[in-house]
Fold these 3 entries.
Entry 1:
Amino acid sequence: MNQMKNIVILGATGSIGTQSLEVIEEQKGFRAFALSAHSNIELLEAQIRAFRPVYAAVTDEEKAKELKIKIADTDTKVLSGVEGACEIASHPEADTVITGIVGIAGLRPTLAAVEAGKRIGLANKETLVTAGDIVMAKAKETGSEIIPVDSEHSAIFQSLAARVNKENYETEISRIILTASGGPFFGKTKEELENITVAEALNHPNWSMGAKITVDSASLMNKGLEILEAKQLFSVPMDKISVLVHRQSIVHSMVEFADNAVIAQLGTPDMKLPIQYAMTYPERLPMEGNKLDLTQKPLTFDLPDPDTFRCLALAIEAGNTGGSMTTVLNGANEAAVSLFLDGKIGYTDIVKNIRREMETHQVIANPALEEILAIEAEVYKRLAK
Ligand code: NAD
Ligand code: MG
């Protein structure tokens, strides 16, 4: 790469965001052009002092004011609100936008980046679950490249690069196989899941991530969301996407082709590879970190248990129904997980809330953005009561 690439990191203070900054620090050729955060201005200030971005966007208006005062001695310009995040995401000088915001709050800034034709390193899967049809159609129109950062989807993206005939895409791919770690509750019965605590749900065996995705991984909703994410990213029908539980998180996902060849991407569990690949694609750069040693442990594969992990079954159901049902699934899950993390509902109430919202929803076949946002707001309001 000859020219310095300007990277915008949405959600710079989170797990994906901080690891994206590590990649920028370790590799030449990338500059942290703009950083966003919701309210953690202490960490954002430290990042600003270390990386000297041109812009910082803080969604919480009060916190934006506080940050402005704190960093008055720097050259970084502070923007505020969702508009601020949208502005940096679509800035003419931005090359790649890493979407590390958690949840549906990522939708508008992601869409702003797509509308501006940017390359997206997409971590914020909820955006594709809730408004994938709109985002993918817009990307086609503007030429915005959406490169997955989610490790499974990065693995599929890399495996698909082995294809030779792009014209026969639909007939050549027979199946996408998403791998799932199974989370901390793999093998537990329905009864054993009754009294799960927040601390138990936050204890993931293989990955260290933000709170919401960690709870989603425990319930297997994360895998459900990833099925819907894969459906959008790779335009494959629901019946061509399957899930295998793979406890070691070494095989990050696979593609089975029509001739029964299966191509997979393997590696130690480290999000920095998919983050870096989204920035460097189609090139690969050397990377620090653990090399894979396949002699160390056996690789195992099991079928998931959707009867026990009902969130997975609900996500598949929402994907089969389509339209606004995936918005309801996503919004209800997000609201319920937030209530669970706040100690307001129990672990098994998460799935009960999602099911109730899905059962009472009148599906809109092709919802407009305003309808999606309205449905999410309604679901949130109802669950918060
Ligand atoms: P996190 O909780 O660690 O960080 C979330 C970031 O989003 C923070 O920077 C926060 O400031 C920002 N944010 C939160 N609420 C916001 C709001 N209302 N408006 C604007 N910004 C807001 O989360 P994470 O684990 O980094 O996950 C981020 C996204 O990446 C999620 O969609 C997750 O599913 C996806 N993802 C994460 C991992 C991982 O390893 N962490 C892996 C795959 C996919
Ligand atoms: Mg994943």
Note: The pocket of magnesium ion (ligand 2) is lined by residues 150-152, 226 (CB under 6 Å).
Entry 2:
Amino acid sequence: MILLFGPTGAGKSMQGQMLAVRQGWKWLSTGEMLRQSQDEAVIRTLQAGELVSDDLTYRVFEEAVQDARERHYSNIIVDGFPRTKEQAAWLDDYLVQIGEKIDVVIVLEVPEAEIMARLEKRGRMEDTPETIAKRMTIYRQKMYPVLGIFAEAGVKIVHLDGTGTAGEVHDKIYDEVIQSWQNS
Ligand code: AMP
């Protein structure tokens, strides 16, 4: 399993999908699956830029992992999970249960000013200045600290400059992370 980290607007989804297509991996985005929810309370939470409940997130994540395993994908690239230390602990237990592991965590680093400019263009329903600020805060206070847990556990973490075009960032991830990891 490969995890993609980065603040909202860093290009996680784009990069995750590009890598998934190139490698024949499953792209698993908890945010994308939650956006398809018909549940009004869930949609309201997304629109507010807040985190949905752990129970729902785990359910969505587990179903997607099972689906990927049934379809025999060779790997899964995860975008948007885990977002808190509690979710990281849950993931750790879950991976032991199913006999999988985290191969590498890729962190896309993009300066806040560029993120703001990118999100203005993207225009998703939840991309208002207030919710963007909220998601940035959650990333800094909850998701980024998860990297500390992975580092302590000896998981390989690679920080990459996420600025530039999608193609440039993809090439960088491929050359600096995927190739060296697969050759090792
Ligand atoms: P994303 O597309 O990853 O930016 O996620 C969009 C939204 O989905 C987030 O702002 C949260 O409301 C929700 N979401 C996605 N992943 C999680 C998660 N791991 N835990 C809780 N909420 C999540």
Note: The chain has one domain: 2-182.
Entry 3:
Amino acid sequence: MAKEKSVAFFCKECGYESAKWYGMCPSCHAYNSMVEAPKERKSSSGAARSGPRPVPRRLDEISTENSPRIGTGSEELDRVLGGGILPGSLILTGGDPGIGKSTLLLQVFRSLAAGGHKVLYISGEESLRQLKLRADRIGKFEGDISFLCETDLDAIEEIIREEKPEAVVIDSIQTMSRSDVASAPGSPAQVRECTNLLLTLAKSLTVTIFIVGHVTKDGTVAGPRLLEHMVDTVLYFEGDRHASYRILRAVKNRFGATGEIGVFEMTAEGLKEVPNPSAFMLNGRPEGTSGSVITGVMEGTRPLLLEVQALITRTNYGTGRRTAAGLDYNRVSLLLAVMEKRLGLSLSDCDAYVNITGGLRVNDPSLDLAVVLAMYSSYRDLPLDPNTVVIGEVGLAGEIRAVPMIKERVQEAARLGFSTAILPKSALRADLGARGMRLIGAADLGEAIRAVAKDQ
Ligand code: TYD
Ligand code: MG
């Protein structure tokens, strides 16, 4: 047998292992990310080998019949998970503190228990009293649900093996520790070893485990990046903590599509689903003000209307400041450059602030045209017609390019009562199915601007 390589340090960002310490990780080039590995690492695969010898199987020998999806009681969450919980999966739920992770999981477990499933909620952060106070806000609990306050994962393993619950919450992975790992709870080594153990438990006992993970400043789950690679599904809670809505997004899903979002609202009785997120996102938007444009993006399989806001002002300094909230900063810089070149505007001495309202983060390039028109509207102080929705990607030549699923987006706008849509000319078809809606095709930025200016 090959001699096991001795590992003394590993990178908490990418998991690179080495016998030497480096100031900069040789693999991912992160600085100061090498940390000492635990002294004695019990290999979990070694422990599993004491059982029967594993047998490779052909696909037709593998039965998937007895693992139907379990509904979580929340349509939004079921869709994000790809149709419910797959028994035996390991699901990481990340998000800022106070955004509602514990609340969501408590509600899911309440509904699982009511549906006849045996579930266990383990908290390393709150006392039983605090858990009860939260549970009282959510409603009545029925069925086989129990609570445990514990941070020693070895003890938790024993309990899970004895009690055999169908689903377990570990709230949060940063508070858990294993006695054979020397470092403190929350350290990369602990997080990694604890997740390893939970993975073994989930797969060998077919128990679904929800792991709560805290998020660092830069928006990733604290601890090693490995955590995301080890679990089956990664869900992130987004949204402004001070506003009431919360967006749950699947960024990784071995058993379903990624990119699906679920929209929730935090109320005095816990999280409620938002069945009509577009209307929710547009709630309270200013009408008749310059710099505000509505666009339609796709979030997974669902169209969502949102508001892009821009503010362009003369700078007090030499060069303009640019900020982007909810969208890519570089994209905003690029679009400003396209506007300078193709529309002949002088924007280098202007500050530009661009914002997606609602605390949502959007990567869909179909946002481009709306960002350009919002900036143009603010620059010229020219309010756009509030019943117009704008969809299209902008190329470097100032051309407006087609985007996928235009029909779904236009129909969503029609459903919410918009009367006009400015679309890429190449996407203009008769069968977009938006009856009563005026569709204007624009081939480049000039045409798009003429279309909105004519509306005035
Ligand atoms: P919580 O689930 O504890 O967040 P996390 O586990 O992600 O840290 O959510 C806490 C916040 O939610 C807190 O500010 C109180 C608020 N809240 C409500 O507004 N209504 C409720 O019914 C509950 C249970 C919490
Ligand atoms: Mg919590």
Note: Residues 95, 97-103, 134, 137, 266, 268-270 surround thymidine-5'-diphosphate (ligand 1) (CB under 6 Å).
